[in-house]
Amino acid sequence: MVDSLAYTPQITLDFEIGEKDFFVAGECASRVKKTLQQLGLKQDVIKRIAIIIYEAAMNVAIHATSGRLVVHVEPDAITIRTEDVGAGIEDIDLAMKEGYSTASYEIREMGFGAGMGLSNIKQCSDDLNIESRVGVGTTLNARVFFRDERRHEGA
Question: What domains lie within the chain, and their CATH numbers?
Fold first, then answer.
């Protein structure tokens, strides 16, 4: 297994996610995981990235009317970006707390919206930035570095 993809061309994976499109949201993580396994990344790194992608994509499906998830594979890191059109996040610090959720009753009845998404993303990311405008939408940028010496730099 490799720590760096210096010999691998950069790859970008791009997904459109619609409102309540849970199938596509789940498929994002599965497809990226398969790609990273084919590239030979370490399993612990793949697991962290898959969790970030799954949680971020599900947040788009649950809370937005539409959105996009882009995964950029670089020689020493993976960048995950979501941009959505939706209600936005009123209080990002509060939303980061485990168990805090604004998901509807319908979503919770389906087994989603437990309020762990953003805290799981934060825990698995080496670098995380969230920007949101109420009534407009949210942009999330997360990075995972392949080399241990880069982990948690600036986080």
Answer: 11-146 (3.30.565.10)
